[in-house]
Request: fold
Amino acid sequence: MAGSFSGAGKNIFRLLRRIDTAKLEPVLVGQTENELTSRVRDLGIKVFIVPYPPALDVYGQKLLNLNIADFFRTLVGVWKYNLSLLRFFKEIKPQVIWADNIRTFFSIYAASKLSDCNVIWNIWSEPKGKVAWFLHRLGLFLADVVNLEYNSQAQKLFGVLAYLRFFQKKLVTLYTGVTDFEIASGSNIRDELNLSSTDILIMMASMISPLKGQIDLIRAMDVLVKTNSNIHLFLAGQPLETHPDSMAYNSSLKQYTNEKKLSRNVHFLGWRSDIPDLLQAADIYVSTSYSESFPDAVREAMLVGKPVIVTNVGGTFELVKIGKSGFLFEPGDVHSFLEYLGRLIHDPKLRDSMGAEGKRIIEEKFSTKVYVRNFEDMVLTLRNSN
Reply:
């Protein structure tokens, strides 16, 4: 339950905890009970659970790689789910529905329109492939508003359609702010791992998944520790238990670590509730992800003044000021990654100056306060337009 409170869940929670209930009356509809639903109830906000049928209750990426038989089972699942939603919507009478990702958008669309609701499609990830290509364009046509996470995302996902006036009117960019509700617990990862104050700590916080590219990071560590025995990597995150590829990938990472005799320097921490403490302890924050939209953990690291080295995916180039607050590299380019790591490992002053610049960027351009205000404006504008 606790482990399910990831970037997407945190984004919803930071919205709901700051939203002006004098302007909007939020209701959270989920498919299962989890950490997010528990926290939202504690805010005094209504929470309802409408479970997915088994055909829909699978990892999102799997829905984009279905065979013909699975496709028709999924259509039946969508139909059953919308029947449940129609009965539910008759009771609560929503005016605007914000769908937090592409699966949710298509799962609720029919019931929403039959209930005379406007639908906002929030783009949280950027899946690739022919099915995703088609669904992105269908979603652009169907949605009343498309909630983008960064400015160039529309062109990346929709191509030339993003320049057509009919679609441009639907596009709204909202930078999603930074988690501001988690506080340090007082844990000390250096004590926990028996590390000294002179050891250099590199951190990545993410679900363990092939798309997150943790193997590139461990391969880099195999090179680094040969000349820098005081370098330590800690990976905060766990595999997705409902996704076999994620579980197998986690096992392969640990096997590779053991084979290369890196266990002294590479630490698998699993899910952690003390991310603020880990970020404070880290010297450098990294992300080797092959696919992101506007990564939450990178912004959190910048907010606490850490230099970042992250892949040039999604909107990271709008977030990182290259050479000033961090570095960008192409996914899989371990050579460039190692070069940037080497510069930061051996230059404490550069780490400090980059961390300070990153903190300034987050505080000035990506605050949660601004995000929530713009979110309220987006919803109210859509509601009032009808």
In short: Residues 189-365 form a domain with the Rossmann fold fold (CATH 3.40.50.2000).
